From TrEMBL:
Highest taxon in the source lineage: Eukaryota
The family this protein is said to belong to: Belongs to the NOSIP family.
Region (Disordered), start-end ranges: 107-149
A cellular-component GO term for this protein: nucleus
Location of this chain's protein in the cell: Nucleus
Alphabetized GO MF terms: ubiquitin protein ligase activity
Alphabetical UniProt keywords: Nucleus
PANTHER family: ENOS INTERACTING PROTEIN, NITRIC OXIDE SYNTHASE-INTERACTING PROTEIN
Source organism per UniProt: Brassica carinata
Domain annotation Nitric oxide synthase-interacting protein zinc-finger: ranges: 5-75
Keyword Flavoprotein: no
Name of the protein in question: Nitric oxide synthase-interacting protein zinc-finger domain-containing protein
Length: 149
């Protein structure tokens, strides 16, 4: 028994003409108005009639004053962005140096803790021995007999 075509009408990998027409695919419903198209003798920047016109190599026509103002504004914007970029770069460099200094200090502290952890800590630098007579790792504790002598 053959299958009914009406049940398989949407199995194509592409749209048919009728389906495109129903969806409104590819049709232009509105036209551009007169206000959306600039007049032939109008500047592309200020949209006013030309005063001392200039033309670029692509054929765009501008007023001389408008294009020079635009170039100056772009130049100032580029300089401002370059200055901001340079300051950001300097700030990042300073932060990186500070981070490296902290890392080196942390490594030195860890090294100091690892190698000098067995030695007692003195609170007073002028006092070279603690209350038990301990002078350091290479010294021997003085006995009470030697102290009396």
């Amino acid at each position: 028994m053959p299958q009914r075509h009406s049940k398989n009408n949407n199995d194509l990998a592409y749209f048919t003409y009728d389906e495109k027409k129903k969806l409104g695919y590819g049709t232009q419903r509105e036209r551009l108005g007169k206000d959306s198209i600039k007049p032939f003798d109008a500047c592309s920047l200020c949209l006013k009639p030309f005063i001392d016109p200039m033309c670029c190599h692509k054929g765009h026509v501008f007023c001389r004053e408008c294009i020079l103002e635009c170039f100056l504004a772009q130049k100032k914007d580029i300089q401002r962005r370059l200055a901001a970029h340079a300051s950001q770069k300097n700030q990042d460099k300073d932060e990186e140096e500070e981070r490296l200094m902290l890392q080196k200090a942390r490594e030195l502290d860890e090294f100091d803790q690892q190698n000098h952890g067995a030695l007692p800590r003195y609170s007073d630098k002028s006092q070279s021995q603690d209350k038990n007579g301990f002078h350091g790792a290479n010294s021997v504790k003085a006995t009470s007999f030697e102290e009396e002598a």
